[in-house]
Amino acid sequence: MSHEGIRIVSEEEAKRSAVFEVKLPPEAVTPQKVRVHKTEGTGVEIDWRDGHASSWTFTWLRNACPCATCHEEREKSGRPPGIPKPQPTTLLPMYEAPARPVEITPIGKYALRFKWNDGHESGIYSWEYLRKVCQCPQCVPVGVTK
Predict the structure, then answer these.
(1) The whole model's pTM is what?
(2) Spans of all domains in the chain
């Protein structure tokens, strides 16, 4: 009997996964207003139809890329969306430019796609994904990371 497909997860990881399995009502995942502050380099703000407001920095969004490659890498290392990869400790660390989009494209009426300054562009940030990774104090209590 093979156990290859069995993976033991921590309680925190199980809670994070459960957040993505919850089906949100349409008004919770339908933007009323979307503001992408590309020129200022600050991030994205969304006012949702249910009255909620969310915002993310571009760096956080890049580290939360929902593409299969980024998602699998985060899952293997146990990092939640938005948390950067640990950098190797070196005597002289290399400078890395802050994440910023060079291009932002709406995908139909359901998502945004960013082409990042590091060349990455395969993640499609659906409204539902963005709502589920909301970083406001109401959605993420102090000291807890989604």
Answers:
(1) 0.80
(2) 12-17+26-83+99-132
